[in-house]
Structure prediction request, 646 residues.
Amino acid sequence: MANRSVDLTSGQKAAIEALTHDQHPIPAPLWLARQAYLRNDELDRRLAETNPDQFWREQAALVQWEQPFDEVSRIDLPKHEWFLNGKLNASVNCIDRHVVTERRLKAALIWVGEDGNEVTYTYGRLYREVGRFANALRKLGVAKGDRVVIYMPLVPEGVVTMLACARVGAIHSVVFAGMGTQALKARINDSGAKVVVCSDYGYRRGKALPLKPAVDEAVRDIATVEHIIVHRRGSRPGDAPVELDSEREHDFYDVQDARAIHCKPELMDSEDPLFILYTSGTTGKPKGVVHATGGYLVGVTYLAKAFFQIGERDIYWSTSDIGWVVGHSFIVYGPLSIGATIFIREGVPDYPTPEVTWELCERYGVNIMFTAPTAVRMWMSHGAQAPGKYDLSRLRLLACAGEPLNPEAHRWAQQHLVGQADGLVVDNWWQTEIAAPVLGTLPTFDPRPGKVGKPMPGVDIAIVDAKGAPVPDGTGGLLVLKKPLPYMLRTVWGDHARYEQYWSALPGMYSAGDIAVKDGDGYFSVLGRADDVLNVAGHRIGTADIEASLAGHSVVAESAAIGLPDPLKGERIKVFVVLKKGIAETPALISSLKDHVRSDLGAIATPSEVEFRTSLPKTRSGKIVRRYLRAQSLGEDPGDLSTLAD
Ligand code: AMP
Prediction:
């Protein structure tokens, strides 16, 4: 009989072993449980199990429909449709429905720059800014279904652009402004974008980083791009703006008519795409995950309340960026849909000082925060005295996602970051493809460090072996969804066959690509990826992306990228490079290879280590055995290469 067990790395085996010993939950404070949005999550879970359509019908009532849907779901896997024939507009849900209430004078968005400069948009102002820019897009010919690529740092104009696209029915595709030229080009090309909206500079660690040259290079021979709209900030205050030197370039504000504040929203079908967001897969080609308007909005609105517990009077800060799915769902659409106040800051959480985050939490009275475990570990490395110096007595909930939250960091954050408020640190698991929490810890049950938590209501999730059969509790396996969710992807842009692979690897189930384990009480832990995808500081990077970039360097014959454990970032990248004949191995070449990957893919994907080899370990059919290289790098026994199956 074929082997059914899932191939775990030694790190994953060690993590499972450690989890069985660390059994000390953190008691969830009663006061938080009492005011939780879901008072009895078990009851909701049961309703969602017994009558899923009724459950989702109730959640759909959180959203404003211009035309009611006539069917909750129609599922014919891998196809799944939600809220059929319902019509709505996401920007109306995030703005208009608040503007007609007393919320029109409430802060929708508070933005702070690295230098402490502050800008606030009330819901009323957000309505006007989005209306003006949406009208400008329409005037340039942008219509329902057109793609708009957004390459902007975390600035209010980025949020405005996303919402303006939603207003006119254009599909936005935000590309993280830290990504390099090739990554941007591939995304513009794949989406067939008609318009690119960018900023001229982003600010990071006190430096102005030019973004326009990457756009110039990326669009050079892309004929689909008709307009480039540049949000001009200058490299310093008072600077001359960057030149707009072609007919297709426009200034972000000049293109707007200040008086044109009302923009008729496009009526979108529930299943019409809202956005494409590219993520890494196991091939070098970026994967354009497509989310549908209705199901997505219902999911993020429900979970902004049910998971993040965001309420009317909260200041909510997500340290993520609009370039990631967290930024889409829980900077923009979820919190604005419920009429909350979002706090956003451009820059990194340890500049100008490692204390800046706590200083801002105190200054603005932040109540709920969403961050990545890598940030928690960074703060931890600077010691507890930093947060201890500030008044964090209002910070009651800290949600972490993106990568495993190690028990040590979890306990530290519980004590030092939310301790003053007698609050709670909660882990949550999801991914670009499923745009809101799937597993997580709610205030109604005790967090167990090292474990993400339990399924959210409506989620049917399991851990299975390589053949799709459930594995016993305490045994590692593949994380799968047995039923689709409204807030899951509908397709991969331009490559539906690639979408179908999510549901065909294990027939009838959605394969998340992660290794997980469940304990006897129903708590899940997600230990890492099962495929050739790395997770560096909470960001997914395909080994194939890095190898494809290196293949573009003139000296490289072939290469292999692997992830190695890193105390701060979770994983760091090491590459093995075979040079072309006659090329000498020099330290300068190592820098040149690193720079090449940085410029192609961005800083996150930059290898921290380059090792030259004369050949790479391969199976008989020629596949590179990255696992072998990884074991060698970790000083473990890599096994016998000649016995490896193809
Ligand atoms: P992304 O689509 O870039 O957001 O990456 C999603 C991937 O990050 C997941 O498939 C997991 O591998 C990992 N991930 C996200 N959240 C968690 C978490 N709470 N614990 C462990 N891994 C996580």
